[in-house]
Amino acid sequence: MKRQGIRVLSLAAGQPDFLTPQFIRKAACDAIEAGHTGYAPSAGIPELRKAIRGWASKWLGVDYADDQVVVGVGAKQCLANAMLALCGPGDRILLQAPYWVSYPEQAKICGAEAVILPAAERPGELNLRALEAELDRGAKVLVLNSPSNPCGTVVPQNQLEVLCDLVASSGLFVVCDDIYDRIVFDGRQVPHVLRMRPELAESILVVNGVSKAYSMTGWRLGWALGPADVIAAMRKLQDQTTSNAVTFVQHAAVAALEHGDDAVSRMVSAFERRRDMVCEMLSRIDGLRFARPEGAFYLLVNVRDLLGRRFGGEPVGDDVRLAELLLESRQVAVVPGSGFGAAGTIRLSFAASEDDLRQAVERVADFVGELE
Q1: 119 and 100, same structural domain?
Q2: What average pLDDT does range 50-78 have in this prediction?
Q3: Torsion of the alpha carbons at 253, 151, 6 and 362, rounded to the nearest 10
Q4: 202: number of Cβ within 10 Å
Q5: Does 35 lie in the same domain as 120?
């Protein structure tokens, strides 16, 4: 449609719509001019590994050694390398539905079985009963994503307390995908298993990066922190695949971690205003249900009450067709929830301007009003 000159209002973006802060861009340019354009240590430049360890001490309350950190080409690479390091054929990796679309595919890469925990009553929280049942069946690893993509919800502290007890008693290893942990609303801080039980650090791998918090998605820079033996395996994988993340990007990431708090706060405030506006507008549309996001920049909207109704005489059979009809008839792009293990939902992103968000939700309301 865009190639045909049709303006599409996108609520599908998985990245912030802000420019990377100027001081970070300048740090990258300065690094290029200083000659930091060659190879670097595969595990990351020492300056960045030190900055990441300082970040972990500040935000997680855990002091990691240098051999407990690896810098990768985005958090996605770190997650994939983690699964390859931790799991093999026949192992069972637990994923809480709804889940990020790449988790099951990464499990397949290492020959493991992705075991989907059915959605909890509130999407984005943990189904603890199902989790405990899978532990009895020999599950090895849980991937934990809070705030969640696609829900924007945060796993509450009381559930994490139960999870900590299970980790301590069962030997379960937890991979924390914390990529949205700085994008949190209402003045809160995301509860974290390591802040609650730092003595479990040998059973926890933390994955994070600069993509979301610093609006640096295209820079491809992430990291992992965890037990030295797991990190060593991840480093070996990286040695023989990508080698180092882009050298001058690593220097820019040092600037982000050391001087970026104000920039993050400004962006989070903008996202919070957008969330409030979008939630208020959506709440007035009959047939849509959702949990108010506590972080990230997504809403997972339950559209099951709309399915089976007709649009232009055609039955709206599922969330995929509903998303297609929204695009075709109203030029609004959303993401079907089926890909996240959440059939009957659509994911909306509020990583767009307030004017675009307002127009897009008005078009959604107009579409719903036309259903028969």
Answers
A1: yes
A2: 97
A3: -130
A4: 11
A5: yes
- Structural domain of residue 347, as residue ranges? 2-18+262-370
Residue 123 has what pLDDT?
81
pTM score, whole prediction: 0.96
Answer yes or no: is pLDDT of 262 > 70.
yes
| pLDDT given for residue 10 in this prediction | 96
C-alpha–C-alpha distance, residues 175 and 43, integer Å = 19
Spatial separation of the C-alpha atoms in residues 265 and 187, rounded to whole Å: 10
Buried b (16+ CB within 10 A) or exposed e, 252-276: bbbbbbeebeebbeebbebbbebbe
Per-residue pLDDT at 122: 83
Q: Among 211, 232, 259, identify where a domain stops.
A: 259
Instruction: Please state, in angstroms and rounded to a whole number, the distance separating the CA atoms of residues 33 and 224.
Output: 28
Question: Do residue 6 and residue 65 come from a single domain?
Answer: no
What percent of the residues of the chain are helix, what percent strand, and what percent coil, each to the nearest 5?
45, 15, 40
Above 80 in pLDDT, residue 1?
no
Domain shared by 82 and 135, yes or no: yes
Q: How far apart are CA 181 and CA 190, in angstroms?
A: 6
* pLDDT value at 110 more than 90: yes
181 and 239, same domain (yes or no) = yes
CATH number at residue 351: 3.90.1150.10
CATH number of the domain bearing residue 231: 3.40.640.10
Burial of 236 (0-12, 13-18, 19+ CB in 10 A): middle
**237 and 288 co-located in one domain:** no
| β-strands 345-349, 92-96 pairing | unpaired
> What local confidence, expressed as pLDDT, does residue 7 receive?
87
Helix 22-33 vs helix 247-259: angle between axes, to the nearest 10 degrees? Answer: 140
Decide which of 215, 239, 259 is a domain's last residue.
Answer: 259
The Cα 216–Cα 231 span in angstroms is 24
Q: Angle at Cα 113 formed by Cα 112 and Cα 116, nearest 5°?
A: 140
